[in-house]
């Protein structure tokens, strides 16, 4: 990939499950 991709792991409110959020720095375009 031309840009690094970051994965962020968040614990849900119940504390038993997790949500994995993938983010990539914006590089010349808008959107997620």
UniProtKB/TrEMBL annotation:
Tell me which Pfam families the record gives: DUF736
Domain of life where this protein originates: Bacteria
Q: Which InterPro entries match?
A: DUF736
- This chain's protein is named DUF736 domain-containing protein
Species of origin? Brytella acorum
| Species lineage | Bacteria, Pseudomonadati, Pseudomonadota, Alphaproteobacteria, Acetobacterales
